[in-house]
Design brief:
Low-confidence stretches: 102-147, 452-459, 462-468
CATH topology of the largest domain: Polyamine Oxidase, Chain A, domain 2
Pfam family, one: Amino_oxidase
Region (Disordered): 119-154
Number of helices: 12
Structural class: alpha+beta
Domain Amine oxidase: 17-446
Strand content: 25-35%
Protein name: Phytoene dehydrogenase-like protein
Shape: globular
CATH architecture of the largest domain: Alpha-Beta Complex
Number of domains: 2
Mean pLDDT: 87
Number of strands: 22
Largest sheet: 8 strands, mixed
GO molecular function: oxidoreductase activity
């Protein structure tokens, strides 16, 4: 019998960052690859809407400069990351407190030697000044703020304990974290030996922002990995919007690799069937869609629960005086989990003379989400928000796959010889997890196809005339 004519060695279904990163590794190894995407653009949930010169992320997941796959993934050499101001800014007890890395600290060992609570941003007009005590200085007398027991990070001793805990976590190998006993993150926090106000005022709002999980039901192992990345690097955003990352991956693949507007209806180990072009033959199929779409093509695949995310974008002429900081609510006094003047983090996201404020609501949003968010932002920033213009409200019900314990961070990516799956639902529900799953699955495919074996030359996807 004659060997069937293949149109590609591997067909990748889905052009999110997991599938695109896998395609890069496959093509780099000489494997002819075809990426099919049902939408008319790449990126999946890493989408950015363009409105009047603004770039508005739909989900706005936070990235970290400590994510290894941002450095290891082929095709991302040209990615520009815009970091937030060091650490985070906490709003608690009517004031702003900075929780950040000590100047000069950091690096591979994650030397987070101290976490300091500083009233570094303007106080809301109604907030009282803390009492001051005199300090003896030769020739004069000055005053410094008294220690405020209500500060989110607690006393100086509490802050030192927190800094030491984060420093140890930053220096712990990831594989050792994955071998720890597994609990819901909220229970594991209580067992860390830190004061309740440090946990409630800093760690809980920080982890909720990093994991998109307000109830902290996430596996403690995943929470440890998130805190480890926070301690080792800087929170950041891709320059130009979240879609800059998948678009860069797609643009740097060989011409003709990615085909958008192609809906796959079924898959097997040797072919995929599309609604537009019929059957496409191949040697292996990789399903790189979201969890629910993957389960429709691969019956029996587990569909996780999801964390919904709502992002509200406002613009104003005068940016609030918090700088390029990620602002968290230590008091949990409203729907906003975190907010930032993102145009100060990444100036390409807003036209000149305008400020873009993006705020994230986790869980089910309130009925009139824009009004509730405006009221909360007025307290967080300490400025009136009634005249801010609403640019967009993006609600994504299945934004982030839940990672409740027991959670397998290395779910199998090889289902059968010739049939594979990847995505953040096979790893951690982060950009790092999506890219790493693409790394794992490309290694599995290359091992099965045989390194050095001659590969086929991809044939073009047949075109179908579109209705006017």
């Amino acid at each position: 019998m004659l060997e069937p004519a293949y149109q590609a060695d591997v067909v990748v279904v889905g052009a999110g960052v997991a599938g695109l990163s896998a395609a890069h590794r496959l093509t780099s190894a000489g494997v002819t690859t075809m990426v099919l995407e049902a939408a008319h653009g790449v990126g999946g949930r890493m989408a950015t809407e363009k409105v009047d010169g603004f770039r508005l992320d739909r989900i706005g997941q936070l990235l970290s400069t400590a994510y290894p796959e941002l450095r290891l993934t082929p095709g991302l050499d040209g990615l520009v990351l815009r970091p937030f101001a060091s650490g985070v800014l906490l709003h608690g007890d009517g004031r702003h407190h900075r929780a950040g890395v000590q100047p000069g600290a950091g690096g591979a060992r994650g030397a987070l030697h101290a976490v300091r609570a500083l009233a570094s941003a303007p106080r809301p007009p109604s907030a009282p000044r803390p009492p001051r005590r005199p300090v003896a200085v030769p020739g004069r007398q000055v005053s410094v703020p008294r220690s405020r027991p209500g500060a989110p990070l607690g006393t100086a001793v509490d802050q030192a304990r927190l800094g030491a805990a984060l420093s140890r976590l930053a220096g712990t190998p990831a594989e050792r974290l994955l071998s720890r006993p597994e609990l819901p993150a909220v229970e594991a926090l209580a067992a860390r030996g830190l004061p309740a106000r440090t946990i409630d005022g800093f760690l809980r709002p920080l982890l909720a922002a990093l994991l998109c999980d307000p109830g902290l039901t996430t596996s403690s192992r995943c929470a440890d990995l998130a805190l480890r990345a926070f301690a080792r690097g800087r929170l950041c955003l891709p320059e130009g919007g979240a879609d800059a990352l998948p678009e860069l991956l797609a643009r740097t693949l060989p011409p003709g690799t990615v085909h958008t507007g192609v809906r796959v209806t079924s898959v097997s180990t040797t072919s995929v069937t599309t609604a537009e072009h019929g059957e496409i033959r191949c040697r292996a199929v990789l399903v790189a869609t979201g969890a629910r779409a993957a389960a429709e093509l691969l019956p029996g695949l587990r569909v996780p629960d999801f964390h919904p995310v709502t992002v509200v974008h406002h613009t104003t002429d005068e940016p609030p005086g918090t700088g390029a900081s990620l602002l968290l609510d230590a008091d949990l006094g409203g729907p906003v989990a975190h907010t930032a003047v993102v145009s100060l983090v990444d100036p390409t996201r807003a036209p000149a003379g305008r400020a873009l404020v993006s705020s994230t609501v986790l869980g089910r949003p309130p009925g009139d989400v824009d009004t509730a968010v405006r009221m909360h932002l007025a307290r967080l920033y300490g400025v009136p928000t009634a005249r801010w213009e609403t640019l967009a409200v993006h609600h994504t019900a299945e934004a982030v796959p839940a990672m409740r314990p027991p959670h397998d961070l290395r779910r199998p990516v090889r289902l059968l010889a010739g049939l594979y799956v990847c995505g953040d639902h096979r790893d951690t529900s982060t950009v790092q997890g999506a890219l790493h799953s693409g790394h794992r699955v490309s290694a599995a495919i290359l091992a099965d196809l045989g390194a050095g074996r001659s590969m086929h030359v991809a044939e073009p996807v047949p075109t179908v005339p579109r209705a006017a």
